[in-house]
Automatic annotation (TrEMBL):
Domain DJ-1/PfpI: 3-178
Species of provenance: Streptomyces piniterrae
Family per similarity comment: Belongs to the peptidase C56 family.
Top-rank lineage group of the source organism: Bacteria
InterPro entries linked to this entry: C56_PfpI-like, Class_I_gatase-like, DJ-1/PfpI
Name of the protein this chain belongs to: DJ-1/PfpI family protein
Pfam entry (one): DJ-1_PfpI
């Protein structure tokens, strides 16, 4: 059975973690969560409130990581998912995150990223020349990383599928699951 890797950390966006995590399980993929260390991760929720110029942040759910980033052999995984939130701000500084993410792009394996995850990928040079969605405030980061910012709900560029934020998740995961079914089909999920 193909395995999917989700890289997250504290302050990852709650919905951008749980929606793809559960979709991968629903599709029949073995799904592992990696973070800077093995621990119970604390997520946040971002919401839009009338009168605010930006989003607000509230405490979200918790979920344990299965692996520390240092323990990950990316060759064991068929695809990578990177949720947004604030976690990408510090994940991009982690040498093991950089090693893992670069592997997926170098080997042309499917990668899904959403919202602020683009700020963790841009410094790696992997967005150069690629069409990429992200949260609108991250457009300068995408462009500084050589990418082409696209304001759309599901942008497919080769084996990369990106989206702006959690309201885009149905289109984002529909496109990613379609790519996975083509590149790394799962066994039929067990219905019990």
């Amino acid at each position: 059975m193909p395995k999917i890797l989700i890289v997250a950390g504290d302050a990852a966006e709650d919905l951008e973690f749980f929606y793809p995590y559960q979709r991968m399980l629903e599709e029949g993929y073995e799904t592992h969560v990696a973070a800077p260390s093995r621990k119970k991760l604390r997520f946040v929720t971002h919401d839009f409130v009338d009168g605010y110029d930006t989003y607000v942040e509230r405490e979200g759910h918790s979920w344990p990581s299965d692996l520390a980033l240092s323990e990950v052999d990316p060759a064991e995984y068929a695809a990578l998912i990177i949720p947004g939130g604030r976690a990408p701000e510090y994940l991009r500084n982690d040498a093991d995150f950089r090693r893992i993410a670069t592997h997926f792009f170098d080997t042309d394996k499917p990668v899904a990223h959403i919202c602020h995850a683009a700020i963790a990928l841009a410094p790696l040079g992997v967005l150069k020349g690629r069409r990429t969605a992200a949260y609108g405030a991250c457009a300068p980061d995408v462009e500084l990383g050589g990418g082409v910012f696209v304001d759309d709900s599901a942008v497919v560029d080769g084996n990369m599928v990106s989206a702006r934020a959690w309201p885009d998740q149905p289109a984002w995961m529909r496109a990613f699951v379609s790519l996975l079914r083509e590149k790394a089909p799962a066994e039929a999920p067990v219905v019990g």
